[in-house]
Write a structure and sequence with these properties.
By secondary structure, the protein is an alpha/beta fold. It has seven helices and six strands, in the order H-E-H-H-E-E-H-E-H-E-H-E-H. The longest helix has 15 residues.
Amino acid sequence: MAANMTDWFRENFSRFFSSGSSPSNSTVSDTNNKSLKIRAIGDEQVGKTCVLLRFIKDIYIDDRISNLQCLGVGNVKEIHLEQFSVKLKIYDEPMFEHFPVNAQQSGETEKTEKVALIIFFDVTNLASFEFACNYIKDFPYDITYIVAATKCDIQEHCWEVSKETISHQFGERVVYTSAKANTGINELFTAVASAALGEPVQKASFTSPQK
């Protein structure tokens, strides 16, 4: 799966993320309001849809759920940073191979909007951590991204990857989250918006949930 993902990514990245490395305010009508397109990427069953549901609709579903059924193609939510408000347009990708469908449905705005990624992995699933590492390693372009560690309400002795390993791999780009416990959710989206739009990111955004 990783090999196919890498090949597709190299062939199509510039088409869908051409705006990712350079900010643009062309879609902003007011200096105190900005727009950011966020694409949620991750291996299957890492809990990214649960995190997005918690953030967008403030609900938690403790079951195997379909991202398209729950969230559709794209959702909008506004957040407030210190200097301005940001309209987040959030796209939950069902599987990597389906990504072009969602990107095409977003239309020409892809060329003018700032784009950022949230890359998810499950702390109890080593394979999902490796997927995230490989995904980032194969970026052919510079783009803003934040890593979301999910299911952090689970006791640490059940984790398949240690905090030391996570910190070594991702540094301050990682935010520890739990959709079930509702921890780290707002911090995650504040972090990615701040990083993408040039705002200082509060240190609290990168702390793990208290045990």
